[in-house]
Known about the structure:
Blueprint: H1 2-10, H2 12-25, H3 31-35, H4 43-56, H5 61-67, H6 71-95, H7 100-110, H8 117-124, H9 129-155, H10 163-187, H11 189-195, H12 199-217, H13 219-224, H14 226-250, H15 255-266, H16 270-280, H17 288-309
Helix pairs in contact: 1-12, 2-12, 2-17, 4-10, 4-12, 6-7, 6-9, 6-14, 6-15, 7-9, 7-17, 8-9, 8-15, 8-17, 9-10, 9-15, 10-11, 10-16, 12-17, 14-15, 14-17, 16-17
Amino acid sequence: MIRILAFLANAFPFWVAAGGILALIRPEWFRWFSEWKPAGQSLVVWGLAVIMLGMGITLSVDDFKRVGRMPKCIGIGVIAQYLIMPSLGWSIAHLMKLPTPFAVGLILVACCPGGTASNVVTYIARANVALSVLMTMCSTFLAIIMTPLLTQWLAGTYVPVDALGLFWSTVQVVFLPLVLGLALNHFLPKAVLWVTPVAPLVAVLTITLICASIIASSAEAIRNSGPALLTSIFLLHAGGFALGYGFSKLFGHETSTNRTISIEVGMQNSGLGVVLARQHFADPLTAVPCAISSVFHSVIGSMLAGIWRFRPGR
């Protein structure tokens, strides 16, 4: 059973891509996920909180201690994350002359931390999984400050950005679930052991529903703006993977570390981008680049992982 669950979770690029395509063809199948609001909050928000909780239960106090054992690699990876992607997002939005909501959405997702799916891709690529997990953890905690500030600075040229509101939303849907998961792992380790095998698949299916529902809600606009929007999102993630690798290589790291940092930089927490876009920007189209982003980085990441898996690095 555990092998089956792992296989289904590792097939996340297929689920995300299939969900996105189906959402364009049959949007009515997925709209309910973003429209239903139990306890006053959309399922999109609850879904991201569940994903972050799932990440939290995989963390322990020892993980924070391990950060001190490889500070250089983690520091370079996190700097690359918040230097390369936001710069790319802003530059591509201007060069492609994207409509305002799409430009803001592209910048927003570029300012988000690394996604948890990067850990799965790193595992498939046979790169440094421990480094990947620690980088995701650090960039996610830093997102509480970095994502609001960078978004206000870069997207503020298009529309007013409520940095304080973004900060509070990030605390609610990222920091609190992570801390709760960490506490559960520390105080109820036996219960966590029962949940852990299922958590990755739950996260994959949830992110698929989140992104498919947003694509479904704006299916017509996506079809009308297809080429420029899709090209911009592709350039963002392809550039992130390439520049992340090159940035790491500049510091003389081994191939395995270069690949890990490449994956971390190229793959964003698109679900967080969707939630922040829906809660803090009036135009619903702002969430669209964030949703499509999940499809692109999953597909590109899985292709790289497949190639690197059979070309072992040092």
